[in-house]
Write a structure and sequence with these properties.
mainly beta; six-stranded mixed sheet
């Protein structure tokens, strides 16, 4: 691991200091030494959102009282302390069903409405053996204090639904709220031989919006396996969705009625081209619309090599018409290799992306290291041209070890901007039990937070 310096932090011994770190270092004024570990959650890829007052919301999954799993939601103040005004001791459990253990519920996304209510999205699974019997989109809305919102979901605060014709069900990975308070949820709908992008729009009361798609539902088929991983509502109230589109990353832009926008790409669809040479395939996990209206997606590009296949963080930038932006990277695509695996290369993946206040692009994800396939939490920062920013970390990249040994898995999932600094959610699994593991919140230093914003 000599190509990128590792910021090592054994959580049980973390000590905050008064010294200001360099760009990309942990911000010691946040949590304990820059880190919050929530061992209550089942370590996953948590949904993450920020309120207008800087408080931070995580959603994930937690084992219920006796069996099964429920939505788990936790809120922290702006500096990472649990928010005692939320739920019970700063956390809320949400079950879909008449009893707490009726279904296995997994929360993957969270958004905050303009009125402060919190929308949560994920998957409700009917337990079965050896495989779950059916999965559905699951959406909940709670008040700002964590209480169920009785104006949503026929008084229950929850709703769930599936897509007709997809006998394996589906699930949600992302959620956004438009200017009219309608809730847009994106994920997948799965049949016996095919899985498609799936997008749903709900009215503010939680019912399906009949003015969107077919009865509130839209699917997009790219091939055998397609899954939407991120959704954004742009300033024109168009819905942008990205994810895994067979062997590439693709962006779909939908108009207000759910139809594909003919002014974007090819009939409303734009492909990143991660599957073109020298890359073999790729996908997107995160999406952001930048200050110039350009669409940035981030995920992974699989570089085909029969001796050592590798994944690099892959980023593509599109213009408003869906064409790749030739001023970014190489013909609109940039890759960020960490190459920390002993055999060379390794799996380096971006799970989220955010634009900094000065237009630079921050990626959050994981970088494989060593010989056993474990991952380190990883971040990178690019300038507007797609070039690694040398003022961040080491040559534009930083990796972090929050565990206690060589058998830990850790990752960053979604980055957000908080007062100019980047806050990232993620997860930690310590195989062998030396530490409890759980969900992570991390805040990074940024020496340029007072720099001029966009021109």
């Amino acid at each position: 691991m000599n190509k990128v310096a590792v910021r090592t932090l054994w959580l049980a011994c973390a000590v905050a200091t008064g010294a200001r770190g360099a760009d990309g270092d942990l911000d010691a004024s946040f949590g304990v030494g820059g880190v919050v570990l929530d061992p209550t959650a089942f370590a996953n890829y948590p949904g993450f959102a920020m309120q207008s007052d800087g408080r931070l919301i995580l959603c994930d999954t937690r084992i219920a009282s006796t069996s099964g799993y429920d939505f788990y939601v936790a809120r922290f103040d702006a500096n990472g302390a649990p928010d005692a005004t939320f739920g019970e001791g700063g956390a809320v459990l949400i079950a879909f069903g008449s009893g707490i253990d009726d279904f296995d519920d997994s929360c993957d996304a969270v958004a905050v409405q303009a009125d402060g209510k919190i929308v949560l999205a994920g998957t409700r699974v009917t337990p079965g053996f050896p495989l779950p019997t059916f999965a559905e989109f699951a959406v909940a809305r709670i008040e700002a204090d964590g209480a169920p919102d009785t104006t949503f979901g026929a008084g229950t605060g929850t709703t769930h639904f599936a897509f007709a014709g997809f006998d394996q069900g589906g699930g949600a990975n992302a959620v956004a709220v438009d200017a009219q308070g309608r809730i847009v949820v994106a994920g997948y709908a799965s049949g016996t031989r095919n899985t498609d992008f799936a997008v749903v729009r709900l009215l503010p009361d939680g019912t399906l919006d009949p003015a969107f798609g077919t009865g509130g539902l839209v699917t997009v088929d790219f091939g055998t396996y397609d899954t939407a991983r991120a959704v954004v509502i742009d300033d024109s109230q168009r819905t942008l969705v990205t994810g895994i589109a067979d062997s590439d990353a693709a962006v779909v832009r939908l108009l207000a009625d759910g139809s594909r926008d003919p002014a974007f790409g090819d009939a409303g669809i734009a492909h990143a081209g991660f599957d073109r040479l020298p890359a073999h395939s790729g996908w997107a996990n995160g999406l952001v619309v930048d200050h110039r209206g350009r669409i940035v997606v981030a995920g992974a590009a699989s570089i085909y090599d029969v001796t050592a296949p590798v994944l690099d963080m892959g980023i593509a930038r599109f213009l408003d018409d869906g064409s790749l932006d030739a001023s970014f990277g190489s013909s609109g695509i940039a890759t960020v290799p960490f190459d920390l695996a002993d055999a060379g290369g390794g799996a380096d993946v971006a799970f989220g992306v955010v634009e900094a206040s000065d237009g630079r692009i921050v990626l959050a994800g994981s970088a494989e290291y060593g010989a056993n396939g474990y991952g380190l939490a990883a971040a990178a920062r690019l300038d507007e041209s797609g070039t690694p920013d040398a003022s961040f970390g080491q040559a534009g990249k930083a990796v972090f070890d929050f565990g206690a040994g060589d058998s830990d898995d850790q990752w960053f999932n979604k980055p957000l901007l908080q007062g100019g600094r980047v806050v990232v959610a993620g997860g930690l699994i310590v195989w062998g039990g030396a530490s409890p593991g759980g969900d992570l919140l991390v805040r990074l230093e940024n020496d340029r937070i007072f720099a001029a914003a966009f021109e």
